[in-house]
Specification:
globular, 20% helix, six-stranded mixed β-sheet, five-stranded mixed β-sheet, Purple Acid Phosphatase, chain A, domain 2
Length: 211
């Protein structure tokens, strides 16, 4: 199975590099800057027309409409072949995907929860047999720094869930643009798929993997 991973396009999807043909295309959140429904509809058109057999997306902290106007977003999605996951899973050709949009509380953005018990409850929903985990934010200490001098910004509870219980084959996320890249640890491939840099320039390349 060929999987292409992208994240954090923030309304610049038409300016991103061409998506190659693949079995599954994943977008790990922050489609928009503020959850504008017109922009969301434009993204759905773009995403749905990419040369992928299956399309999977989650929301990010900038995609407010998925939290404040979920019915409107679902109405828009009905016209597209896009699998939107919010604490949900989907199985494709025997590979189990799980998507969740939450991240540790930061300012007044969408899908924010305090670190500790409240966000841990969301991570506890992730099934043990997940093959490909899609979260918006990164786990603590893995591709989660803005730059080399920045402290880790990821979620400790997510790290513990991934390492101690789920052990997915792949963990895809974004949110921290400067953490873009790949890292392999203890049998899990971690991918920060952010396409924009910290200045919101379209500078990063997409990630292709096969599982």
């Amino acid at each position: 199975m060929k999987i292409v991973c992208i994240s954090d396009t923030h309304g610049s999807h038409w300016d991103c590099q061409e998506i190659p043909e693949c079995d599954v295309l994943i977008h790990a959140g922050d489609v928009s800057n503020n959850g504008n429904l017109n922009l969301m509809f434009d993204f759905f058109n773009w995403f749905d027309s990419r040369p992928a057999t299956h399309k999977i997306m989650i929301a990010g902290n900038h995609d407010r409409c998925f939290q404040t106007k979920p019915d409107s977003c679902k109405d828009l999605l009905r016209d597209f072949s896009i699998n939107y996951l919010q604490d949900e899973g989907i199985e494709i050709d025997g590979v189990k995907f799980w998507g969740t949009p939450w991240q540790p509380e930061f300012c007044n953005w969408a899908f924010n929860l305090p670190r500790g018990k409240q966000i841990r409850e969301k991570w506890d929903l992730i099934p043990d047999d997940t093959d490909v985990l899609i979260t918006h934010g990164p786990p603590y200490s893995i591709l989660d720094s803005i730059n080399d001098g920045c402290p880790p910004l990821g979620c400790q509870d997510l790290l513990e869930t991934v390492v101690e219980r789920v052990n997915p084959r792949v963990h895809v996320f974004g949110h921290i643009h400067g953490g873009h890249g790949e890292e392999d640890r203890q049998g899990t491939k971690y991918i920060n798929a952010s396409l924009l840099d910290e200045s919101y320039g379209v500078t990063h390349t997409l990630t292709e993997i096969e599982i």
